[in-house]
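User: Predict the structure for this protein chain, please.
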Amino acid sequence: MTPAAFEVFATLLKSRSGLVIGPDKLYLLETRLAALLRAHNLVDLEALALALRGGNATLAAAVVEAMTTNETFFFRDDKPFAHFRGQVLPQLAASRPAGAGLRFWSAAASTGQEAYSLAMIVAESQALLGGRRVEIVGTDIAREPLARARAGLYTQFEVQRGVPMTALVKHFRKEPEGWRIAEPLRAMASFREWNLLADLRPLGQFDTIFCRNVLIYFDQPTKTRVLEAIAERLAPDGVLYLGGAETILGLTERLVAAPGGHGVYRRANAGAASSPSATAPLGAIASAMKVISASAAAATDSRPVSSLRSGAAGAS
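Assistant: Here is the predicted structure, written as structure tokens:
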């Protein structure tokens, strides 16, 4: 492929998704766009680049979607979820007025496993949350994965990747095509097509944001832009989770590391007055943490899902 053709792809991906690719990533273009070439009867990447130069918007969107990494699974890298369950939820429950709702954002939702992992934790923490309304918003730029997230239907292989057996039986139902997430959890989560490079203000404010394993694909200026936009969407005492290989160092001063976990951040301007640990009585937080610990212990079963046969019946 000529340098000029490669530049067409590099410019498109950078402007549309923030994804930065160099000539060393030519193999990714070849492997991830092969199906697109066949579907549109294009002989090679040169022909595809020519079509993109001609302003084919449909092809441009398809290229961005094909090049976007959609690898995800339930409770991926469990530590953030354990921190969310054991630290953040008790703090929010203790600091928010009775009946106040909570909003959580999965900011690269893909096929929905991260959002539904949060929904399972929320469902198992009802004694702690006291009937609060919880909204989980999942966003992504890829339409096909979002359609799967809305359907909430997963294969045996997908549920084996992270779902405890008790959670599978409790929160999924077995169907001929696979395992479908239970309706109460699907009702808790909504999924929207949204670009992190676009205006995030219409999404509103969130008490917790998961934006993991996304920044690693951006250059430094784009990382700063996205982090500062996300910080604006975070509640004053909210928490942001990044991926294990991601950091805010040298990128923004609007966020600072939060105690208690790697890859956990809060707003830099969240003073002591707005901190859950400062506004809520210590006894309330301690009681809340006892409730959620007991709930988690009762709900978790470490036996692998693979011990269930694929034809087993699941209760929703």
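The chain has two domains: 3-67, 79-298.
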